[in-house]
Amino acid sequence: MTNILALIKSRRSIRRYHPTPLSPDQIALLLEAGRWSPSAHNRQPWRWVVIQSHTAKVGLANAMGARLRADLMADNAPTEVIEADVNRSYDRITKAPLLLLLCLTMADMDTYPDPKRAQNEYLMAVQSCAMAGQNVLLMAHSMGLGACWMCAPLFCPDVVMGALDLPADWQAQALITVGIPAEEKTKPRKSIEDLTLYR
Ligand SMILES: Cc1cc2nc3c(=O)[nH]c(=O)nc-3n(C[C@H](O)[C@H](O)[C@H](O)COP(=O)(O)O)c2cc1C
After folding, report:
1. pTM beyond 0.90, yes or no
2. Measured between alpha carbons, how far is 138 from 147 in angstroms, rounded to an integer?
3. Has residue 143 been placed in a domain?
């Protein structure tokens, strides 16, 4: 128990990596950690896209960058802010040795005629995918790797689908960047008292 708590507490989101590629065995271990996640009705609604080729990373980064630029222009953001954001996004995506795109499919989830239950079923799929994502983050940390969850694909699932030629039912949820850490991070947490009610 102490070991798992120490692992959970020492994991940080790592955004800078050495350029060393990951081995097939390392990638297989990450996916295996995701595979054993809990899920609603054990339907395992997560899907993964393993992205290692520089060409695929550049294609994805350019497509997502174009959408980010358009969204920020629609917000009337200053040009320098837009270009800084787009460049940061490009670097994050292209400089990570490994990208794991976490997708959600409703293909095996239950269907309901009413919107309320349909929405709850969708939420359960989202929650299940998040658990798979967390398991991958923890597995990466346990292997001495750094990783970070990027939410950007959630804002442009159509762009991601087109750039990576995904199946029609794969909804992009997050991009997990992975690599050998090239930075150290600390983060605070709220106290348990601030977050908890006892009854
Ligand atoms: C749902 C979710 C979305 C996140 N999106 C981003 C993101 O787009 N970019 C980023 O750099 N970090 C992102 N993060 C990482 C958080 O910033 C990070 O987990 C938080 O600041 C706590 O830091 P720690 O993970 O090092 O403990 C995301 C994390 C979660 C759970």
Report:
1. yes
2. 9
3. yes
